[in-house]
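Contributing new records

If you add data, match the layout below exactly. Sequence lines come first and carry their own label; structure lines follow with theirs. Keep one chain per record. Anything else will be rejected by the validation script.
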Amino acid sequence: MARIVVLGLQGENGLWVVDLDAGTVATLPTPTTGALKDADDLRKAGATVIKGVNLAALATSLDAASGGYMDADGGYMDTDGGYMDK
């Protein structure tokens, strides 16, 4: 089974498709019909839509992500923000 993740970043309109097995990331054409369009519309209106993923956090850099830092106030990984367990 392929391990594919569709991502949308808060404040951005576009979607991304990540193929974890191939190690690739590409822009995904804007969905025009179906459940993905419905989820994208909800996301654009401010909802958070999660299915099959149990951790997702925006990082400010690779160092921030690999160092395990988490900004408790901003909700993203940032080397200035503190550790994930705080």
